Amino acid sequence: MTKKKIDATPKTTTAALATLPEAKLAPLFGSPLALDKLPGSRGDVTREEGVTLVTGRAYATRDRTVPASEVFFVPGAKPRGDGPWLGEADKLSWRDEETGFECIMLRDTHGGHLCGYVGIPRGHPLWGWDHNAVPAELGVEVHGGLTYSRICAEGPSPARRLVAEARRICHVPPSAVRYMPLEHATEHRPGDAHAWWFGFSCDHVYDVVPGDRGDRARFLGAETAAEYRDDAYVVREILNLARQLRAIADGAPVPPREGPPLPAFGLDPKKGA
Q1: Which stretches of sequence are listed as region Disordered (predicted)?
Q2: Which residues make beta-bridge pairs with 118?
Q3: H/E element holding 70?
């Protein structure tokens, strides 16, 4: 008896957003609230192993609209239950028009909180620097301080899958990504394999971490006025960081921050007084 060969390749499906009724869109994003985050009528939606990617569509927070390159919704990335995270993307990638730098908002799958990243090209004075070594006098001020510094998490690969792309801290290639197996690894053509990323996270003692809400509520909750840092807050911090890094590259004064004052580092035991 001949055994039937089983195709283990994950199935990827793509459709134009405009062709899908709203009743079918909401389950793809995990919440009907996500529809308000995606203004307009154009764009495409791609699905693979439960991960949903939206391209060709802007992303709206409560105070601005981002010209997104890719918007990911990942099942299980958000905590269970109601909260301000409902409807939010789990990864948002775009190029900031003002600075020209690549930007990423990414949800931590363990704590459910959001993080932010800005990619700088070779030639930037801080390219290759460890985040702990960036001199304070340069004026880089971002939520919780810099917590990440690394080159693009990318390289030649025989397959680029949505599941991996939804977690990757790397720029969006200028040409369309092929979400299918490649015959040869050399078919992969990254746009710039040498971007250097600086990032920050929203999991400090003055932040509400959805996956750790009980502990945070008991520990200095009232004293630190801990709150969940939503997509509007994180996108604004990403743009602040991008402008600061742009000013450093240009040898110009760091511009004033947009938004409320940052929480005091002294509130965070990891930073010290």
Answers
A1: 251-273
A2: 103, 198
A3: strand 70-73
